Amino acid sequence: MGDSPGRARAKERIWRLAALAFGHPSKEFFDAVASGQFQEAFSDAWADATGSPWPTMPVSEDFASFEAGYISAFLHGHGGKPVAALLAGDHESILAGLTRPSFMLNVAAFYKHFGLRAATGDEGKTDEPDHIASMLELMAVLCHFEANALAKGHDASGYRRAQRDFLCRYLGPTLEAVAGLLRRDQVKLLDPTIAQLVQDMGDWAEVQINELEVRVGPFRDPDAPKTGSSPAEPAAQNLWG
């Protein structure tokens, strides 16, 4: 199943369900977690992609507690600052010396290349393209394109290169940063299912990067300082199909 449309669709479901979990909590999403529907759907996708079920964790006692944990961890924790910001551009290590506007233009280029626009959230505001939920949704779309290409017998390497590049430069480091911050400064209010998901998605991203680099070659960061003349490298970053 490693190179099949079915596995690509399982990956799509993992990214899409994770995107729901990282968005601002809604009563409907909490109900899906409280009833076990979310965990069942995620575990099914996880098993299809990895061969192992996803663990079941306790659930917050009510929606107010569920939302309060999310806010404490990701929005207004210590001194009004998040313990672990969900915007990639809020992490200096991920900006890697770029200005925030330049960084955002680079992130937005991925969406534009595939004809995508940032979604509109529940409050009518456009979601930030560097928010983890938006980036997870982009990965789901890329896996959807990969699955369709494989199902038609077409070359899926362009979509895989796009996944590799986006994971290596943006989503992977953000997931790793958020998971690390929450390991160092645990938020007791954070729902255990969400806390588990944060850690597992960081590991999952690393596994996906390794798998994709085996399939389509190593990542070359276009934002990294150039140490010598290598005119072929920039073109290598635009082979997404």
Task: Describe the protein.
The structure is a single chain. With 241 residues, this protein is mostly helical. The protein has a single domain (5-218), classed as TorD-like (Orthogonal Bundle), CATH 1.10.3480. Helices cover 62% and strands 0% of the residues. It has helices at residues 5-22, 27-35, 37-50, 63-74, 92-95, 100-113, 132-151, 157-184, 192-216, 232-236. Helix 1 packs antiparallel against helix 7 (132-151), helix 7 (132-151) packs antiparallel against helix 8 and helix 8 packs antiparallel against helix 9 (192-216). The longest helix has 28 residues, at 157-184. The protein is globular, with a radius of gyration of 18 Å. It starts with a helix and ends in a 5-residue tail after the last helix.
Set out the fold topology.
Blueprint: H1 5-22, H2 27-35, H3 37-50, H4 63-74, H5 92-95, H6 100-113, H7 132-151, H8 157-184, H9 192-216, H10 232-236
Give the class-level CATH name.
Mainly Alpha
**Total beta-strand segments:** 0
How many helices in DSSP terms? 10
How many distinct domains? 1
Secondary-structure-derived class: mainly alpha
Task: Report the span from N to C terminus.
Answer: 24 Å
What share of residues is helical? 55-70%
CATH topology: TorD-like
Shape: globular
Q: What radius of gyration results from the CA coordinates?
A: 18 Å
Along the chain, the helix and strand elements come as HHHHHHHHHH
The proportion of residues in beta strands is under 5%
Q: So, the CATH homologous superfamily?
A: TorD-like
**Average pLDDT metric:** 89
Low-confidence stretches: 122-126, 229-238
- Give me the CATH architecture, please: Orthogonal Bundle
Q: Give the biggest sheet.
A: none
